[in-house]
Amino acid sequence: MEPASPQAFDGKAFVSTLTSSPGVYRYFDEAGELLYVGKASSLKKRVGSYFLKPRMEPRIAAMVSQIARCEITVTRTEAEALLLESQLIKALKPRYNILLRDDKSYPYIYLSGSEEYPRLAFHRGARNQPGRYFGPFPSAFAVRESLNLMQKLFKVRQCEDSYFRNRSRPCLQYQIGRCTGPCVGLIGADDYRNDVRHAEMFLEGRGNAVTDELVSSMEQASASLNFERAAALRDQIATLRKLHAQNHVQGATADMDVIACRIEAGIACVSVLFFRNGISLGTRDFYPRLPLDAEPADVLAQFVAQYYLDRPVPREIILGEPIPDEQLLAEMLTQQCGHAVEIKTRVRGDRAQFLQMAERNAQASLTSRIASRQTLGTRFDDLQNVLGLDESPKRIECFDISHTRGEATVASCVVFGPEGAEKSHYRRFNIAGITPGDDYAAMHQALTRRFRKVAEGEGARPDVLLIDGGTGQVAQALDVLRELGINGIEVVGVAKGPGRRAGEETLVLAGSNKEIHPGPTSPALHLVAAVRDEAHRFAISGHRKRREKARERSVLEEVQGVGARRRTALLKAFGGLAGVEAAGVEELMQVKGIDRSLAERIYDALHA
């Protein structure tokens, strides 16, 4: 049923056509925008509650007045409806649903699976490489702490494969006793695989089983009079027990998440305290998008349903509030992950203390967020006054250029709104086709690429465009906007003050070339400086990555006929790229697999 306007939608007539089966319903407005997604044990009763009640909350009434169309999906069970609802909310982001906003991927510990000597490594992103992934961890710090722990315990290598393959002597990690030197054959493959197996067991939470095996091996070594081996195992056991005692949390189960929610001033903070293998991995805070009049129980229910859609589910989830459909949610998670999941809201003893800890953390984080937002609002209002704008800006963009003597030039664009940095809108532009070191040309190219889409009617346009630089850089921005026919954007240059001291920056207004000196106490300048510094950081990090990638790429990779194996053989034979460059054709031919024709191509490529 698709009426021409919201007023034409006959909710009562639509309800009369519905089934009493469980399912999911979706409300759309006249423009086709999704307003709300909900699940129901009986579609007829649940959807009917929106149109058959004489009175309803203001928030619900506002939504109902906009409904122009309703779509339903019938499911076999209510648990299936709950799962589908969570998936649709996370994917489609309806206006009136509580939405978990978490654009960061979680880090993992990666154990490679394709090498004779596997490695442990930090991993973030797609998990499509052969091997095993342990996690997710709440932060990069937690992963690095765990990797540091693994180095002390099991000495499994953590170096990159390219570094590992080209070693001719042990590295520093071997010297300080954190690696067994597999790169140069100082440990046999069988012994190394045993260390890897123990590391896997430890990451799976079977630390006591590892200790038992090590004790058994120590006793065997002692019985066979191999006292040096027995002493090494004794020290490893002592280290394992000591670290386990330091990191183990009394009262924590193997896998448990403790989740609390606090709401103030229309902002919700959900704090999650993570426990894995009986060890606390720290906390992480989330700030879901709220509709009006949301309660902590509703936020927790939606958070749990959305958060665990694409993440491993612990066996125990402790919540700070009783939530609707608690048993149904536990059933859905159990079906999804393949093991029993308990959701608890009434706890005592150690678990009650963990919950209090999560609640205190949520309150502290929320208080800080509110204070930060109020400060940010003051800064935006002051910027409006300083620049003489008709209203407070809603979107600020800032561009910066970074390079090293013209090499690997990168331009950055960062975006700030009234709630702070909008990192999902950040962009980098790799600059090419200009004279190296020409910052004006680089700025012109980056701005053209950014605002061409705006001119074509795509993407958001900023209210204020900050340019890191003076009148010359501002002129480039004005030229680009003029060429593309874009008006109504306030362009401001941020020029460094005398002695490049912070707080003495000059704001250059485009068009009039008027200069403003807000001074070090100006909230507007604090905002501008923070945005400018973020653009600078983002540009530098992009430039460094591009430069390192270019320098890591060997000239040998561009020579036809030189694959990974021959490249490794050449580098080993001559001790690195410098040695290969110094070698003649006859010397290159001494390397296995290199004939005269290939040797000449290599020589020509290195001496072009």
What does this structure look like?
There is one protein chain. This protein is of the alpha+beta class and 608 residues long. It has helices spanning 11-16, 43-51, 58-64, 78-92, 140-154, 161-165, 172-175, 189-203, 207-223, 227-247, 296-307, 326-337, 349-387, 439-455, 471-484, 523-552, 564-574, 577-582, 585-588, 596-606, and strands at 23-28, 34-40, 69-74, 107-112, 120-124, 131-134, 255-264, 267-276, 279-286, 316-319, 342-344, 396-404, 407-417, 420-421, 427-430, 464-468, 490-495, 506-509, 515-516. Strands 12, 13, 14, 15, 16, 17, 18 and 19 form an 8-stranded mixed β-sheet that branches. The protein has a 5-stranded mixed β-sheet with strand order 9-8-7-10-11, with helices on both faces. It has a 3-stranded antiparallel β-sheet with strand order 2-1-3. β7 (255-264) and β8 form a beta hairpin. The longest helix is centred in the middle third of the chain and has 39 residues, at 349-387. It holds the Pfam family UvrC_RNaseH. Interacts with UvrB in an incision complex. Residues 208-243 form the UVR domain. This is UvrABC system protein C.
**Proportion in helices:** 40-55%
Proportion of beta-strand residues: 15-25%
The DSSP helix count reads: 20
What would the average pLDDT be, to the nearest integer? 84
GO molecular function, one term: hydrolase activity
Protein name: UvrABC system protein C
Function: The UvrABC repair system catalyzes the recognition and processing of DNA lesions. UvrC both incises the 5' and 3' sides of the lesion. The N-terminal half is responsible for the 3' incision and the C-terminal half is responsible for the 5' incision.
Domain UvrC family homology region profile: 258-481
